[in-house]
Amino acid sequence: TNGQQAQSGAELLTATLRRKREEARHARYPRARIRVLFPSKIMVEATFLSHEPVSAVENSIRQYLKTPAMDFHLYTAPPKAVLDGAKTLAECRLAPMALVRFGHADPTASPLRDDVLAEAQPV
Question: How far is residue 79's CA from residue 3's CA, in Å, rounded to a whole number?
C-alpha cells in the first residue's frame, strides 16, 4: 500500500512518470539478448527488439522443438515467474539481457529435435 511504500522510503511515482521512465529504458536498451535454458541444460540464444512481445521469443523457440505446437511456458527464476506472452520484453525487464527457462508438462523428456541435440555444443 502507499503507506507502506512511504514508510519504507520507496519513491511514489505517477503513471506518467513511470511511463516516461519505461520509455527512457526502451531508448537505452533497444535490443534484448535472450538466452533460453532447456531442462536438458541446452541453451538457445537470440536477439530481439525490446518492444517485441514475449510471444516472439516463444515463436522463435518453436523451430527447435520436436513438436512445434506443444504447450510450454517461459519463466524466470528465482522466484519462478511465468512470463506473459502479451507483455513486451522490456515490460518483463528482460532487456538488455536475460536468462529465461523453458518449462513443459514432462521435464524428463527432451522437447528438442534430435538434430538440434546433435549440433549442441557445451557452453
Answer: 26
Residues with Cβ within 8 Å of residue 14, at least 6 apart in sequence: none
Place of cell 525490446: 50
What nine digits make up the cell of 87? 507483455
Q: Which of 72, 80, 27 is CA-nearest to residue 54?
A: 72
Q: Is the CA virtual torsion 70, 75, 80, 86 positive or negative?
A: negative
Whether 71 contacts 104, CB under 8 Å:
yes
Q: How far is CA 111 from the centre of its chain?
A: 18
Rounded Cα distance between 4 and 98, Å, is: 30
pTM for the full predicted model: 0.78
Tens digits of residue pLDDT in 19-70:
787 777 767 779 999 999 998 889 999 999 999 999 999 999 999 999 999 9
Cis peptide leading into 30, omega within 30 of 0? Answer: no
Q: What is the pLDDT of residue 103?
A: 95
- Determine the average pLDDT of the residues in 70-93: 94
